[in-house]
Structure formats: structure tokens, C-alpha cells
Amino acid sequence: MTHRALTRRSVFKASAALSAGAIFAPALIGRAQAATIKLKLSSSQANDPKYANGRVYYDNLVKHLKSNALDDQIEVAFFPDNQLGQEIDVINSVKLGVIDLMVSGSSISANLVPLVGTFDLGYLFSSFPQQTRAFDAGAAKPIEEALLKGANIRIIAWAYNFGSRSVLARKAVHEPADLAGLKIRTLPNPVITECLRLMGAAATPLAMGEIYTALQAGVLDGLEHDPPTIVASKFYETAKFYSLTEHNFSPLAIYMSNGNLGRMAPKLRDGFLDAAQAAAVDTRAHGLTTEQEALAVLQKNGVTVVDCDRDAFRSRVAVQSENFMKARPESKPIIEAIRATSV
């Protein structure tokens, strides 16, 4: 299988074909099941094979489809850099079955099913390995079931974002008082926006594709994200202080339209899911090794890395989880399961 990072013109052609029902359905209906199934995989991140989680996951998926001898039956076209639209539009398209696959943090799907926002609570996870322990212990299952029931979207695998989320800003942030008045971009998600507000920032939700120009124009004073994403998107060109608040170890979800998945023949579907999950395992390993490399790249490009007072931020944010459990009692067993795996 060859790598295809498509141009904007080809995206428009693909969209037109989708409207006519010409891409996915013929490969899956009746006798056409033997034909190659063509899937579209969307990512908001840059087309960077090292620092962008969407591209890394895509490359791993292609590898495992080939090793499972499925590459002649399933072809995955990769659309990075918001080519299929902003994330909020893409997740809705996955819900409708217009787009097959999406690689993104769990945060974006909380706009469809609020319980998913449990994973956005500040300082809920202490590390990515702890996150895996919690998910292996069953903490992810209620989230997966709620998303499937509420939006007809299946999370077919979990990986890691490439590092914990911290704050990149125009000034050094050592403690909550330093965030006062700073317009810090957050995901368009109420839980993570509230987390940054509690930390002291003027939290400003904004789509991924609009961040760079907003930083350039001074509309934003900074953003919160992981180091590899900041490197891949070159946000370090507009802000020079990266404060290690480590307020969120955000899980990376591989979303798929449940309807489109269900149209695959059972044996092929099982093989595809095996490849998707193996690709996620490889992507997790890649993410753990890439964060420190990305921090070094940031420093090389003139960014000062600040080891801030995380306990002060954690103390301010603690009330968020308690309030969330009161508002959504169904989140309490999930949060307790996660806390039980903390060491």
C-alpha cells in the first residue's frame, strides 16, 4: 500500500464522490464485498511522520494491514491538517458515516456525548502508563459504550497523545498568578476549558486550524498542548515559554463510524480491528519516546522550558472532579477506577 496524503483539490473530489455515495458503499454491498474497501482517515494535525500522532498512527495502521495480508482488501487514504474540515465537523461526519476514521483526543467527542469529558478533567491521570492500567482495568468501557449508544461511533483503539498537555505562552508561567489575564487556547470542550480557567487563565476555545494565525495576530497569548504537536505545527515560532503544568495526559482515540465498520464481512472486520489495535500499541510506544525529543527541539528553537509549581495548579483544579461527579454521577465509578490505579 502506498502512502497518500491528499491535496485539497483531491479532497473536494472525494467529497463530491461521497455525496454520490460512490466511495464506501460499493465496496461493501453484496457481491462487491470482494472489492477493495476504501476508508478515509482524518487528522487535524500536520503531516509529520515523527511528531504528529495522526500520521504516526496511519503509518502504523498501513504496516499492520500489510503484515496481516489485508492491504489488498482495505485501502486507507490519509487526510491530515484539517483537510476534511475542523475537528468538530469531522467527528459529526464520523457519526453520520460520511467519514470512516478519525484520530484525535477523546476531548472532541465530548461535544457529542458529555460523559467522554471525564477524561479531560485536570490532573485526573498522573502518567500515560497509569492511563493504560486504568483502561485495562475497565475505566474506558463506560466511555466507549456511551459514545456508541449516543453517537453511533466506536472507539476501535486507544493510544496516547505524544506527551502531557502543558502551557506554551509569550511569558513564563511559574504559578497560577502568572496565568492571570492570559488568553490561552483550549480545545472547544467545556471541561478542558474549565480546567484552564481554574488554573488561572482566560481560557479561549478555538479550532486547531486557527491557532497559528491567532497567535501571530496577538488574539491569543498562548495555548496548551503536548510538545510534539507544538513542534509539528510550529507554534514555537509565535510563543517562547513552555511551562510544564502537565495538567492533562490526554488519551488518543481512534474513532470509526460504527455503521461503516458493521458493513465489513465479519472475518475482514476482525482482521481490521486487530491491525487497528496493534497500530495503537506501536503509536503509544512512539509517543512515549518522542516527548523528550520534542522538548529538545523546542529548546533548540529558542523556547525556554519552565518547571512550574504543579502542586499549586493541581490544588486549584481539584474541585473540578468533585463538581463533575456531582453533575454526572455516572462518571464517579470511572474516576474512582482511575484513581485506584494511581501509584
SSE topology:
Blueprint lengths: L7 H12 L17 E7 L9 H15 L6 E6 L7 H10 L4 E5 L22 H9 L4 H11 L1 E8 L4 E5 L6 H4 L3 E4 L3 H10 L2 E4 L5 H7 L4 E4 L1 H6 L8 E8 L2 E7 H5 L3 H35 L3 E3 L3 H18 L4 H9 L3
Task: Give helix % range.
Answer: 40-55%
Number of strands: 11
User: Which H/E pattern describes the elements?
Assistant: HEHEHEHHEEHEHEHEHEEHHEHH
Q: What's the CATH architecture of the largest domain?
A: 3-Layer(aba) Sandwich
How is the largest sheet built, in terms of strand order? 7-6-8-5-9-11
The rounded distance between the terminal residues' Cα atoms is 43 Å
Biggest beta sheet summary? 6 strands, mixed
Number of helices: 13
Shape: globular
Number of domains: 2
Task: Describe what is shown at a glance.
By secondary structure, the chain is α/β, with parallel strands linked by helices.
